[in-house]
Structure formats: C-alpha cells, structure tokens
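Hi there, hope your week has been kind to you so far. Do you reckon you could talk me through the fold, stretch by stretch? Thanks so much in advance, here it is.
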Amino acid sequence: MAGMPTHVITGAGSGIGAAVARRLHARGDDLVLHARSAGRAKELAAGFPGARTLVGDLADPDRLSWALSHQSLPDRVDSLLHIAGVVDLGEVGELTPKTWRHQLDVNLLAPAELTRHFLPQLRASRGHVVFVNSGAGLGAHARWSAYAASKHGLKALADALREEEHAGGVRVTSVYPGRTAGPMQAKVHQQEGKDYDAGRWIDPESVATTVLMALDLPRDAEVNDLTVRPGPGTGR
C-alpha cells in the first residue's frame, strides 16, 4: 500500500521477530524481511504475502556488504528492527574463540553493519532503529559471558548511535526482554539441563506490543531503553 511505513526486520522467522512482523503485516505496513538463505527467504515470503526479502548471513558480517550490493534495497526505510540473535552458554574456562565469535558476529557486528547500510534511508525518513537486546545486556551471570558480552556491546552500539543521530531526527530504542517463550528459550533450557515450559515465560506477543509502542510513539518523544520482565506468577 502506497504511503505505508517500511520496516526492515531481522529474526522474523520465529519468536519475537515473527510476532512483530505479524502485527506490522496485519496493519498493512510494508515489510522487508531479512533471511540467512534464499530458501529461508522463500519461506518468509510465503508466510507474509507482499513482503520483500533480503538475503545475507548474519554469522558472516564481513560479507553482508557484498550480499546487499547484489540485491535491490528499499528506497525508503522507516524502521530497522534488529531482532535476530543466537545464544550458546558455557563457562569462561570452556568457551572457545569460535563460540565467542559466532555470538559477537550475529548479535553485535551484523546489527552494526546493517545499521551502517541503512542509515542513509533512515536519515532521509527520520526513521527508527530498534535493538531487541536482552536482560543479559544489562547484567551477566555464570555461563552467560559470551552472550552477555555481545548484548552489552549491542547496548553500547545503540547508545552511541542515539547520540550521533539524535539531532538528525533518527530515533533509537533498546528493548531488554527477560526470558521469552520461543525456540531460543527452549535451546537455553536444554543447555541448562532444565525442563522447558513456555507458559512460565513472557509471550513473544507481549514483547511485540512494547516494540510497536516505541515505533508508534508521537515524534515529540523517544523511548531510549525499555526493560520487559516476566509478570507475576510466571518465571523470574
């Protein structure tokens, strides 16, 4: 639909990203969905009729520039939503550089590189960059060092970007969800050796509500940081 805002979204295949994409798609906004492969892009396009796709491996940020240069990028971008992420738990004494690097590449370097590429369009539209971070971006616990380091770095990226782009009208928001039901949380429980009960944790739709609130806020205000924790009677 002409005149509707355009959102570039990573992580739209599951969890929080899928919930956000569904809500924006349902109200008629234009979506550009990132996928790690052509096959995944085809699946996303089938799930969101009318959406465009971009293909690039977030685990290889050095090649994202090349990948994007061979595709048609949207002329207008009203928001860039960084929702994709990976997690691998382990003690500092056990984690290898490969495990560290994978989480840093996907969770930090790839968002920085995608932001760099889309900043011209975001500046032109006075758009919005949303980083779906994690409670681990505000504090680290045992076995979470690599993931938390990548998310602490993502907070620093968002804070610096906000200060750099504020005068030009680009808004920057970090959302810090607690444990949220979905494939990532199931993997975390498996790594922790615990039984997984999705009902104990935040529904991805609830986090999506907070993301849309930040996007839809009138231009006279900006949500900088938003922490979302499991409600009473759920997890911790």
